[in-house]
Amino acid sequence: MNIVLLSGGSGKRLWPLSNDVRSKQFIKIFKNENSEYESMVQRIYHQIRKSDKDAIITIATSKTQVSAIQNQLGDEVGISVEPCRRDTFPAIVLATAYLHDIKGISEEEAVVVCPVDPYVESGYFETLKKLGRFAETGEANLVLMGMEPTYPSEKYGYIIPSSKELISKVASFKEKPDVKTAEEYISQGALWNGGVFAYKLKYVLDKAHELIDFIDYKDLFLKYETLEKISFDYAVVEKESNIQVMRFSGDWKDLGTWNTLTEVMEESSIGNVILNDTCKNIHVINELDVPVLCMGLKDTIVAASPEGIIVTDKEQSSYIKPYVDKIDQQIMFAEKSWGNFRVLDIEDESMSIRVTLKPEQHMNYHSHERRDEVWTIISGQGRAIVDGVEQLVKSGDVITIKAGCRHTIIADTELNMIEVQLGKDISVHDKQKYEFEY
User: Fold this and answer.
1) What pTM was computed for the model?
2) Which residues pair with 286 in a beta bridge?
3) Cβ–Cβ contacts within 10 Å for residue 403, how many?
4) β partners of residue 331
5) 349 phi and psi, to 5 degrees?
6) Cβ proximity of 117 and 74 under 8 Å
7) What is the spatial order of strands in the sheet that 389-393 belongs to?
8) What does 111-134 look like in DSSP terms, one character per residue?
9) How far apart are CA 317 and CA 383, in angstroms?
10) What is the widest separation between alpha-carbon atoms in the chain?
11) How far apart are CA 293 and CA 353, in angstroms?
């Protein structure tokens, strides 16, 4: 099975655990078979591997999420990187060209495209295989998966099938309705449009060449910033006449809000949390190093992270986005391919950060023009390289790096350090990368 997982968005509806770098699919709240917490992207990736160990999995994402994906899934996962955000049609075209031109997949093979963040069980992946087979052997150019509705939702668009068979032609599409209209659609046999579909690579490549002037994957990548922002639904799906839909009646949840997310949490609390006996239907996630105490709360969600704290009624949690849009602050936590960092303190001319590097990993070899840095090693062992000079480092060592010096650190074991940035103009944009020769 060739499968493309669409991983985008900033996940503002799950603030403060998500931000522009750490989207909702990277929040670790699900327990796996080893009772370890894993994220949405880890969960669905492992589920696909369990269903089809030979599946070719490609994650289509923006460059801001690449580090988090590699941190959670490793360096071997296939990634189609969008140079900038251009909505789902350009993203899917780029991923399709990546499969054909870079991975060498035949244009006669089918690919299944689906979001990275639904909460599903094993039956979903068996249906994805069927969807791919229908796309590869059937007559339709596109085969969609339609979810059997469990309630009249205003969150989804609807697909009206022409019959009640497992797979049928699509009669029409409907935009996101109000509840009353949704009830009418469901009475007509409508299905939720969950953004899952399959096609032969040739079909989308041909469509892409009709709409975009490009030669191959590399050419498309270079021109990506100039492409029109348009969804795959508007550009392709709603204009295609030879299209079918396959029904799916298994478990499927779109975890787009705090309320839906807590519905699938196995525990009422994660982290350092204390609940008294009078709390009812409450969920708490605490990523801070201080305890959170809740007393007498009902139908409530509490989430605490370095980004902020939310305390909300479960029903009201769906309306968070306009308030979060008004919040403009420094990214306080992020996962990188080499480990993670957490901002501890921000002053006018300094910023203190706790940095954790995984064993045998290293930062980019880089320099800053407008700030000095002081590294204090807390634990672990490694090698600091400053302007080409290597120095062994261990717990208690202090490294001073002046502005303009090229530097990196290599972790021989897991390594923790405090990085203090000093300067009048501290900015994430003040960074020059160099080729790493060590």
Assistant:
1) 0.86
2) 304
3) 14
4) none
5) -125, 25
6) no
7) 389-393, 382-386, 407-411, 365-367, 432-434
8) EEEEES-EEE-HHHHHHHHHHHHH
9) 46
10) 72
11) 27
Bond before 16 cis per omega within 30 degrees: yes
Strands (DSSP E) found in 110-234: 110-115, 118-120, 142-147, 157-161, 167-174, 191-200
Q: Distance of CA 180 to CAs 151, 315, 399, Å?
A: 11, 19, 65
Q: How far is CA 166 from CA 171, 286, 405, in A?
A: 15, 44, 64
Rounded Cα–Cα distance for residues 189 and 249 (Å)? 13
User: Do 383 and 391 form a contact (C-beta atoms < 8 A)?
Assistant: yes
- Residue 268 · residue 287 · CB < 8 Å: no
Can you give the pLDDT at residue 11? 64
What's the average model confidence in pLDDT over 315-327? 90
Residues 6+ apart with CB under 8 A from 104: none
Residue showing tokens 């696909």: 48
Nearest residue to 45 via CA among 147, 114, 142: 114
**What span, in angstroms and rounded, lies between the C-alpha atoms of 158 and 149?**
9
Domains of the chain: 2-254 (3.90.550.10), 267-319 (no CATH), 338-434 (2.60.120.10)
* 106 contacts: CB under 8 Å, gap ≥ 6: 100, 201
Mode of pairing for the β-strands spanning 78-82 and 56-62? parallel
In angstroms, the CA 174 to CA 160 distance is 8
CA distance 351 to 422: 7
- Helix H or strand E encompassing 260: helix 258-263
pLDDT at 266: 87
| CB 137, CB 198: distance < 8 Å | no
E strands of 279-358, at which residues? 280-286, 292-294, 298-305, 308-313, 333-336, 339-347, 350-357
Residue 421 token pair: 């940035």
Q: Read off the pLDDT of residues 138-165 as tens digits, 9 standing for 90 and up.
A: 889 999 999 999 999 888 899 999 998 9
Helix (H, G, I), strand (E, B) or coil at 187: helix
Q: Side-chain half-sphere of 279: how many Cα atoms within 13 Å?
A: 18
Tens digit of pLDDT for each residue in 69-128?
A: 999 998 888 999 999 989 999 999 999 999 999 999 999 999 999 999 889 998 999 999
